Amino acid sequence: MMGAAGQLALALNRLHGLPELAGRLGAPLAEADLVAVLEEASRFAEERIAPGRREADRAGCVLENGVVRVPPHYAGLLREWQAAGWQGVAAPVEHGGQGLPHAVWAAVFELVSSADMGFGLMPMLTAGAVELLAHHASADQAARFLPPLIAAEWNGTMGLTEPQAGSDLSAVRTRAVPDGAGGFRITGGKIFITWGENDIAANTLHLVLARLPDAPAGSRGISLFAVPKVLADGRRNGVRCGGIEEKAGIHASPTCTMIFEEAEGELVGEPHRGLPVMFAMMNAARLAVGVEGVGQCARATALAEAYAAGREQGGRAIAAYPDVARMLGEMRAVTAAARLIALDCAVSLDRARAGESGAEARLALLTPVCKAWCTDRAVEVASLGIQVHGGAGYVEETGAAQVWRDARIAPIYEGTNGIQAMDLVLRKLPRDLPAFRALAAEAGAADAALRGPAEALAEAASHLAFAPPEVAGAGAVPFLDAAGWVLGGAWLARAAVVEPALAEEAGFFLRRLLPRAKARLEEALAPA
Amino acid sequence: MMGAAGQLALALNRLHGLPELAGRLGAPLAEADLVAVLEEASRFAEERIAPGRREADRAGCVLENGVVRVPPHYAGLLREWQAAGWQGVAAPVEHGGQGLPHAVWAAVFELVSSADMGFGLMPMLTAGAVELLAHHASADQAARFLPPLIAAEWNGTMGLTEPQAGSDLSAVRTRAVPDGAGGFRITGGKIFITWGENDIAANTLHLVLARLPDAPAGSRGISLFAVPKVLADGRRNGVRCGGIEEKAGIHASPTCTMIFEEAEGELVGEPHRGLPVMFAMMNAARLAVGVEGVGQCARATALAEAYAAGREQGGRAIAAYPDVARMLGEMRAVTAAARLIALDCAVSLDRARAGESGAEARLALLTPVCKAWCTDRAVEVASLGIQVHGGAGYVEETGAAQVWRDARIAPIYEGTNGIQAMDLVLRKLPRDLPAFRALAAEAGAADAALRGPAEALAEAASHLAFAPPEVAGAGAVPFLDAAGWVLGGAWLARAAVVEPALAEEAGFFLRRLLPRAKARLEEALAPA
């Protein structure tokens, strides 16, 4: 068995040749340095973050007089996070980042999210804001906003959802009115704003979708605004937290209703072009949620392995019983496969930025698979983790139930997994069908066991790509799921060739789990 | 679409001919009366119990000075429950029950558990105690204990698990010492005792496994004792609650550590024969947990249907979107299939009691399938229910997350689902293989789509029945799962013939979900 950091380094160094790619992206990185970065991130995550995750869940968040109090130990943890500089791993060098490939951030973020998903959401959203601003802000905005975000002194949020506008953002009603001095006044309410308000960051920068007075109706009339909680002159802006949600998990991550009342904001990008800007950074955001899924898989597996090794029944550790061994085997195999899919997606993002031919299409196809498959698996793996613990798993003390409760949000936010599947099947398959068929063929070549499922996947893709929307819509989720089983199996097979320590995971996956791909393809193609 | 009570009545009246069977069991019951009973139970569950389920979850249980305070509204609810007489539906007439078939209780209990699983656990455990005492207590014990239990004035508990004895009950250490006057003094600690202590029942009767001083080691040296919280003369017995668990769900059902300190108890049954007595009532207890799974499927589906009908996006109710329709279709089909499997199991219990040939073997085979398949599906269906709600599903207010959290205990308690699968594959298949193959053949005859999967199931059964224990153990869970998909599909196909309103569920299940059976059989037969 290899630990998470070991698998991450193996995949990035030996399956993806990341050091060479990093050089092309202008941030040279030796294999040994990458190993050292991941080992250090793992140490930070396990020693500084993970010990507080149960307490963070128990303490949760409290809204008092407009201030959200996050778990008390988060203030010190944020200072350590700032000092260690992890936030800037993949951020632009000119604003204080280290400029490493995005895949390195994805790897570091897996370790952080695995240690405490609730805490990890703050760096995740901040990284999203950095991504967006680095590509779409003016030079002046970048100079003011990026350094404190990259230093993790400020946190960033994404203000999209409104009560009547969930998956359908064209229904956004928040208004932005020019103030006559080049700025805007934002008024409206946003819900489900992760880390929308907190008592530990020096400032919070809200990236908010709103409509200008002359905006056309629908999705072509939405603009993007940057709205800081505290203005440059130290005044408090007109934005406040109206409530926090009582949720099944991620108790330590405040999910806020944010009320904007003539809040001062700046336009980011062109007027009415807010949705394309937001969507442009969606690949990274959806990848990040998939990575959260991997992190929760890894945490569930680590907890279950430790419990099964230490708990005895009938005179031997329960890990030795065939059914417990089966559960642990599935957890390990799925975790490794999910990690490899997520890294393929992350490296594709870097390759696309390096201008490699075909990388853009690969990224477009892999992103929904990564987001949906890795997060659906996280909920299942966490549930298996509870089962390994037996009755103790249902008791909060062991932490197994927390992984399961925390993980359950990931199939929902940043576009539900149904939305991901429709993005793949209704939007991307018609556009990139040859690229998808090539991806399937590549998977089919990885191992004899994959040939049949990969062919069936390619055929289903060709069928669904041009099926009527009702048929494609009803088949989308099982199709995406099948794609994940095939692509994950292929990655495990390739990884086992390079690193024999992964042969057990690969064998278990291909022999025992891969049949699920065919079952889900049959479902995808059956009349609804 | 038919409601839960409608499907229950349809299945019992028209698929199982329960009224005729009831007559043979000495409790004549007309079809119309059965319909009326189920409608009344549904009304009680929906109008009296269900409105409090969110509040029950929120309030949870508190241990104060040795007293467990359950949610405040439960005191009044228990009085209504007592007055309505539901506890005694299938209990012996001579002790105040109505003597109806067990299947009627199973149907009523589904409705109760669906309304509030935490509350439902009290009647469930009490019914288990009644079952056990009705068959194994002395006439004198029955006369003293059964009337107050059947009237729901007392509640009953099962004291099996100890910290070192979870799935392996042979490791029980609690001691029972004769007091020289025909009674016993019980000393030891039990954990995970459902409703072990509470502030609303007049008394609590603990049925406790313990060892006599001369007991042989292992499972043949365990005896069963009845230990009331309050003794006949009004003295408080030496049993107290040492703590309650903080759990992921069923917050309103106290899960207690019970400490017995020279508590006065009575032997139930023969010395050293406690485990067989306990196991004799396990069929009913495991069936009841499977029924809980059905109840949670039904609740999740009802909540999701209501939400999807009322929530609009892009100008139409989300229920009309193909992927939401897919989720609702799966939830409805699985709920109906689980209900039909549970009722087959319940009716088999009644047929076995009526002495019908083959009923005992059918009951033995169906019980683990009912317990494990229905509860695994409950967690999945509840998770789909969250997904239908989107972000609102992760917020506790909608109640969707509660169903998921509550349902997650059911695959664990009353023998984990791994234990169920091993009971089926390692114990029952070798003994009852012809009966299992007949069951599979019966399923294969229900619809052309079932022929292949049913044959594959029968072949896998023949293979696993005589495989080495490690192979059978590693294949047990996926095998049982496959059995549930096949048997559930067969029941839906038969039900749709009798009642065309179920054709949609049957078609959805057979076309889209049944392929999972083959995938899980491949997994079961693959080398571990």
From TrEMBL, chains A, B:
Positions of the Acyl-CoA dehydrogenase/oxidase C-terminal domain: 273-424
Annotated InterPro entries: Acyl-CoA_DH_CS, Acyl-CoA_Oxase/DH_mid-dom, Acyl-CoA_Oxase/DH_mid-dom_sf, AcylCo_DH-like_C, AcylCo_DH/oxidase_C, AcylCoA_DH/ox_N, AcylCoA_DH/ox_N_sf, AcylCoA_DH/oxidase_NM_dom_sf
Domain Acyl-CoA dehydrogenase/oxidase N-terminal: 36-153
Superkingdom to which the source organism belongs: Bacteria
Cofactor: FAD
Entry-linked Pfam families: Acyl-CoA_dh_1 (PF00441), Acyl-CoA_dh_M (PF02770), Acyl-CoA_dh_N (PF02771)
Similarity remark: Belongs to the acyl-CoA dehydrogenase family.
Name of the featured protein: Acyl-CoA dehydrogenase
